[in-house]
Design brief:
The protein is an alpha+beta fold. It has two domains: about 45 residues; about 110 residues, Immunoglobulins (Immunoglobulin-like), CATH 2.60.40.10. About 25% of the residues lie in helices and about 35% in strands. The chain is built from one helix and nine strands. The strands form two sheets. Strands 1, 4, 6, 8 and 9 form a five-stranded mixed sheet that branches. Strand 2 and strand 3 form a beta hairpin. The N and C termini lie far apart (about 110 Å).
Amino acid sequence: MPGASDSARARSFATSASSASGSAAATAAAASSSGAAAAAAPPPPPPPSSPPVGPHEARGIVFEDLDGNGLRDPFAGEMGLAGWGLELWWNGQVLATTTTDVDGNFVFPSLGNSTYSVCVVAQGGYRQTLPIGGSGCGGAGYTFSFNSQFMTWSVNNFGMMLQ
């Protein structure tokens, strides 16, 4: 009875093909609905990498610019301003903050080879005279890079004139 056996095999094949296509359709529908959910909510961004550590320093002074010329003249009484806040930016985020000492000096130590920005935190009653059109912080600060195995300083001075 080769004919009966062929018919049974054909029916068995049709049933398994139908079952396989139904299961493929279910899998496609599940993938489509989960794909829609994934498209609606993108994956979170990767965490920021850690900043490099090294021998470099960003330092400077925040001083009172009595005549508003953007130059510090300590012999004319243009002394440092204590208690001013500064921010160190790296990779689009604030990496560190500090406050000027009694002489207006500040330092951000242990910086590695990379690009950074230093910004002064504005205080009411003062107008910034240095830097004007700076390279960082929307023109009110400094952007600089370190690329050396030897210690390097980046000097970033800020002049402030009482209004």
